[in-house]
Specification:
Blueprint lengths: L5 H14 L3 E2 L24 H4 L9 E9 L15 E10 L4 H15 L7 E6 L11 H13 L6 E5 L1 H7 L6 E4 L4 E2 L13 E11 L22 E14 L4 E14 H8 L12 H11 L7 H19 L8 H19 L7 H11 L6 H4 L1 H27 L8 H11 L3 H10 L8 H31 L6
Parallel strand pairs: 1-2, 4-6, 5-6
Antiparallel strand pairs: 2-3, 3-10, 4-8, 7-8, 8-9, 9-10
Helix pairs in contact: 3-4, 7-8, 7-10, 8-9, 8-12, 9-12, 10-12, 12-13, 13-15
């Protein structure tokens, strides 16, 4: 255990990359510019995609940063020991410069020598190949890893698992290097079959940290392996090697090969303090500590609630810093969902009065040195989020009471719409609450809810037309006929 905190790791990483000729670029906002395909910046490479696709970057061919990210698809996973919606991704990129050997060696050096992680607990994965598309097995990366492990006095056996399902059936069998297929292939379409002609892609190599004290959960397969979701292996980072281009007949080598590395700051920081729980790091624990003070309850007894609140308020704070306001559309709806879910879990902690003003300054101070804009816009952030907290608290208790009346009949999209329209419950929060309370939820709730929303929009549009028409007639001297 090194005891190094996340702020130290962020600074050391960026300096480490600068020493290797990289230029530090600033974080991109959580709201992507000129990218209608996605609501949020969800990875470090996302703002750099044009340059990975061939454009020249003004800062050169070696870049590095720590990018704030938001992935709402992980919201239902928040509450376990490793998932968060908001996170920082350490990243470095080679745009037609160095490739596999330099990348894997420098990542290994950073983890083992700069952060001080135990190399005996590091495991990796590589691409097993795609014979149907003529893409070979990535034996080059595996060979580099073998050399790095060997230099540390560690035997590096290999196992070809192919899929995560097969991995769960047979296990890693003690192998240090595991090969997977689609899991270790990167492209924007997800797999080689979906790639359009001209699209770049390539194999990737993930690095995992073993927590031997965590028992394997057979719910994820009979045996554990690197990509098992039981929590015994935690992914620290992934190096993508963009070296192929899709053609009409298959794949050909890219004329300019790129490296795209992304690593979770929180997970590396958790490994540095030898904790499988990312909420113990210095970028989350101060919020939990404050929640314990305010509620009089402990993290050990109310773990899930404190994890959800700390993650969601941190994410909502950065969204507000980047200019988002709660609404019922797109990014604003996601912010509303985060805030109201945090308020709902605070209710379980007995925090029934507005508590955001006691938490948001804690978030700001945690990031003051590296992201001063969080402190600079602190009053604005508090004003935006407290207004939303107060709005939801007015109807929260009534909404929960109303939901309980459906205990026997269950809820369809019609009841969910009532909770949304009358009590301000985001529909995802209502379904989550129903399932927690074992209230049956209709299999077709989404279609039923969407139909009620469409009816409401139609009524609203009709009312607007009825209101506008007389005004237009009056402006023209009355109706003609």
């Amino acid at each position: 255990m090194t005891g190094m905190d996340a702020d130290e790791i962020r600074r050391i990483y960026l300096q480490f990359m600068v020493e290797r000729g990289h230029v530090v670029i600033p974080r991109a906002p959580l709201i992507p510019h000129n990218d209608p395909t996605t609501l949020f910046t969800g990875s470090g490479m996302q703002p750099l995609l044009p340059f990975l696709l061939g454009q020249d970057h003004a800062q050169g061919r070696r870049l590095t940063d720590s990018q704030t990210c938001l992935r709402v698809q992980d919201i239902d996973e928040v509450g376990d020991n490793r998932h968060t919606t908001f996170f920082e991704m350490l990243g470095n990129w080679s745009l037609g410069d160095y490739f596999k050997r330099d990348q894997l060696a420098q990542f290994w050096e950073f983890l083992t020598e700069r952060v001080g992680l135990d190399p005996n607990r590091i495991y990796v994965s590589c691409f097993s190949g795609d014979p149907a598309n003529g893409i070979p097995k990535d034996t080059e990366s595996a060979g580099i890893w073998t050399e790095l492990f060997s230099a540390a006095g560690i035997s590096a056996d290999q196992v070809d698992l192919g899929t995560e399902e097969h991995g769960g059936a047979v296990g890693a069998q003690g192998a240090r290097i595991a090969f997977y297929g689609k899991k270790n292939w990167w492209c924007r379409g997800g797999n080689a079959e979906n790639m359009p002609v001209g699209e770049p892609g390539g194999p990737d190599s993930e690095v995992f940290y073993l927590y031997p004290e965590i028992d394997h959960d057979p719910a994820y397969g009979r045996y554990c392996h690197q990509n098992c979701d039981c929590g015994r292996f935690i992914e620290l980072g992934n190096s993508v090697f963009m070296e192929y281009k899709k053609t009409e007949t298959g794949f050909e080598p890219l004329p300019r090969r790129n490296v795209d590395y992304g690593g979770g700051l929180a997970r590396i920081a958790a490994a540095a303090i030898d904790s499988p729980d990312v909420y113990r790091i210095n970028l989350l624990w101060p919020i939990i500590d404050r929640l314990q003070e305010l509620s009089g309850k402990s993290y050990e007894t109310d773990t899930e609630a404190m994890r959800v609140i700390s993650d969601h308020l941190r994410g909502a704070t950065f969204l507000a810093v980047d200019g988002v306001k709660p609404s019922n559309k797109e990014q604003g709806y996601v912010m509303r969902r985060l805030v109201r879910r945090a308020v709902r879990y605070a209710f379980d902690l007995g925090l029934e009065q507005n508590f955001f003003p006691q938490i948001i300054p804690t978030v700001a101070q945690m990031y003051a040195a590296d992201y001063p804009e969080v402190v600079e816009r602190g009053d604005q952030v508090i004003a935006v989020l407290v207004k939303e907290e107060q709005s939801f608290r007015r109807t929260l208790r009534k909404g929960i009471k109303q939901l309980k009346t459906y205990s026997e009949s269950g809820v369809s999209g019609i009841e969910l719409f009532t909770l949304y329209d009358t009590y301000g419950f985001p529909v995802e929060l209502s379904t989550e609450e129903a399932r927690k309370s074992r209230i049956p939820v209709s299999d077709n709730w989404r279609a039923e809810f969407d139909a009620k929303m469409a009816e409401q929009r139609a009524r609203s549009q009709g009312a607007s037309k009825m209101h506008i028409q007389p005004l237009a007639e009056a402006a023209q001297g009355g109706p003609r006929g």
